[in-house]
Amino acid sequence: MREFADRMGPMKSASSEGQSSDDDDADLLLKWFENHGEDRTEPAGEILMSAGETPRWMARIDSGIAAVLDGDGAESHTLTVGDLFGELGLVGKRVRTATVQAVSRVSLKVLSYQTIDRFRGESLEQRSLFDQALSELIASRVPDPLGPDGGWVALVAHDQKKDQLEQLVCQYQQTLSNYKIVATRTTGSRLSSQCQLPVRKLVCSGPLGGDLEIGAMAARGQLEAVIFLRDGLSSHAHGSDIDALVRACEIAEVPCATNRATALMVLQSLPNGDSEGSSPC
Questions:
Q1: How many structural domains is the chain composed of?
Q2: Residue 279 phi/psi, 5° resolution?
């Protein structure tokens, strides 16, 4: 069986190049599928997308059912009419992270990354609208064990900055205790033990997707602030995830501190924050 991805050739726009701007459309991503996507039909059992392959397109299901398979080939969840898949390559994923298989005969609308990049580049406004739509889509992919309420503060630090974050958190422990804290696993475990700060939610480490999970929370409007002390002197394999988190904060207008000086400003701006802080450690 030839895989669907192997048959993907250069895609052509389904509409003319002279089409009017999409800038003012709130459903920009869906409109691009309608106007510029390519129609495909695949039989039941066909592999639509394979984990490990190079991502070059995303798709929308127009009819039929598909299944997302885990690493053992077991079905983790289903995709039905209107569902999108294949978007993570747009935030820097170099390979597919999941396999999708047609359960029944499916009709798809397929949009190449090349087409998306072309239309994103037409204007700054259009790029911003698309990035917002993409953030919301990625947010919908992340299970939401945190509930719909706000009041969360995210704490993240690269290895070379963990000592610095620990000092800040200990200093402002009383202020931060008034919030629900989400942190990446290693950072959160350290802050909980060293600063006696209750950490309500631990996400995966950054290279394993934790930065994207926190970015999704920002896109949902769940975060009051993000403190992400970054090591600017080192390269990071998941740099695109880091950029996506910061971009999500920019779009959602969530305060995001990436160094000690801006972290102090954010902490002091939180209710009960003050210039001196409090240090129980």
A1: 2
A2: -130, 95
Sheet containing 256-257, strands listed edge to edge, beginning at the edge strand earlier in sequence = 201-203, 180-184, 152-157, 223-229, 256-257
Residue 211: active-site member: yes
Nearest CA to 242 among 253, 260, 222, 256?
256
Q: Do residues 47 and 135 share a domain? A: yes
Evaluate if pTM is beyond 0.70. no
Place of tokens 């995966």: 204
C-alpha span between 149 and 139 (Å, rounded): 15
Residue 75 domain-assigned (yes or no): yes
Nearest to 229 by CA among 208, 209, 257: 257
Asked whether residue 165 carries a pLDDT value surpassing 90, the answer given is yes
The more confident residue out of 206 and 222 is: 222
Are residues 261 and 156 both part of a single domain? yes
The separation between CA 12 and the C-alpha centre of its own chain, rounded to angstroms, equals 28
C-alpha closest to that of 172 among 54, 27, 279: 279
**Residue 260, SS3?**
helix
Clarify whether residues 137 and 183 are in a common domain: no
Q: Which of 211, 241, 243, 274 is catalytic?
A: 211
Domain boundary among 106, 141, 176: 141
The answer to the question of residue 171 being in a domain is yes
Output the pLDDT for position 23: 38
What is the DSSP secondary structure assignment for residue 61, as one 8-state letter? E
